[in-house]
Write a sequence for this structure.
């Protein structure tokens, strides 16, 4: 694997992080949402290893070296930093478990980034080293004796940690940096779809299991009503909706799917429901009669989901309908099975929290169905109505 590292002059200077983050041990982080008190010591190894799998995906992306904003690290630079964080905390844990109240050597992360030339490193090598470092420090956590979690160590600035509090502090650091590069999850998921358009189109068709959902949705509409579809994909649902007598605006965040739709003669738009203008470009002051979002918003980050629902409500007429289908469960997961080979990030929802998010965004839930999926999963099929 060969690449050309960016010249030092081409990189914007990174503003040093001089904040004291020890307060995250006492209260939730308002940025990444990490809650130290919710993490028990026995879960540290699992979460550290799970966190590392995200970096393996982000560092494999073609744009891993690109800085999305001036003065902010790229995914590569963050990944190299996280690798070194695991190494530093692994060494500190060893000290605490073998020495009586050791004092840790100072570690300047900004100096480490400069001296280590984070921006010029090989993403593939960094990914491998990060996975190894994460596994190594996770193994240390697994082997902490029950009576050793209270052993103490002191940072160079005088902050005192126990093995358990150091573990939570360590975990916040790597979790927070995933939040820093959260846009990488979207880019990786979109890239996975872009690379699989042909396979997806050839191996899928309109699911007759969705017929009752589509008919129930159409029952809320009148012939000729204008529907905004989020995530049209190969266009199977759009055709079925149009056969039911409504007009459909086809949109997708994947440029590959939009290109396919256009070759089929459709006026499809490449559109991100989180950031782009959702209004009809021909009649921007006329709201849509309804929104159809089948198996698409399950890729939206949990923190952004309410924003997307609110933006959809803003462009839908009062009393207008919304169909959303998501996978039921907790947390999130990278999946590389089905019609797309590359990993995609899926965000799972429980019915109660989904209902709450819809209500807060201005949607009255009419019904939530539960359906078994082909891969042993359960889908939540929502029909809602625009309040007001």
């Amino acid at each position: 694997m060969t690449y050309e590292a960016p010249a030092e002059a081409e990189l914007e200077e990174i503003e040093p992080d001089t904040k004291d983050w020890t307060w995250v041990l006492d209260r939730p982080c308002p940025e990444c949402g990490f809650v130290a008190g919710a993490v028990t010591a026995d879960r540290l190894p699992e979460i550290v290893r799970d966190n590392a799998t995200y970096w393996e995906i982000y560092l494999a992306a073609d744009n891993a070296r690109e800085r999305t904003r001036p003065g902010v690290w790229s995914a590569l630079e963050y990944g190299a930093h996280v690798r070194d964080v695991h190494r530093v905390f692994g060494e500190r844990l060893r000290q605490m478990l073998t020495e009586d109240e050791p004092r840790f050597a100072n570690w300047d992360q900004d100096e480490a980034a400069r001296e280590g030339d984070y921006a010029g490193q090989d993403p593939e090598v960094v990914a491998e080293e990060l996975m190894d470092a994460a596994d190594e420090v996770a193994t240390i956590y697994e082997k902490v004796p029950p009576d050793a979690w209270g052993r103490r160590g002191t940072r160079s600035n005088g902050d005192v940690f126990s093995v358990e509090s150091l573990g939570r502090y360590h975990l916040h650091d790597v979790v927070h940096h995933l939040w820093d590069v959260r846009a990488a999850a979207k880019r990786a998921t979109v890239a996975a779809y872009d690379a699989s358009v042909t396979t997806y189109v050839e191996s899928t068709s309109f699911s007759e299991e969705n017929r009752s959902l589509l008919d129930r949705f159409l029952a809320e509409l009148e012939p000729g009503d204008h529907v905004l579809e989020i995530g049209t994909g190969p266009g199977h649902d759009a055709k079925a909706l149009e056969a039911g007598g409504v007009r459909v605006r086809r949109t997708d965040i994947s440029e590959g799917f939009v290109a396919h739709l256009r070759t089929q003669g459709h006026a499809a738009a490449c559109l991100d429901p989180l950031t782009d203008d959702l209004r009809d470009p021909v009649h921007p002051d006329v709201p849509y009669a309804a929104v159809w979002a089948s198996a698409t918003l399950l890729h939206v980050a949990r923190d952004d989901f309410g924003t997307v629902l609110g933006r959809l409500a803003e462009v839908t007429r009062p009393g207008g309908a919304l169909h959303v289908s998501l996978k039921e469960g907790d947390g999130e997961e990278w999946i590389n099975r089905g019609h797309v080979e590359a990993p995609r990030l899926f965000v799972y929802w429980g019915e109660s929290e989904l209902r709450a998010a819809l209500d807060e965004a201005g949607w009255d839930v009419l019904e939530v169905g539960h359906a078994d999926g082909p891969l042993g999963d359960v889908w939540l099929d929502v029909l809602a109505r625009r309040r007001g």
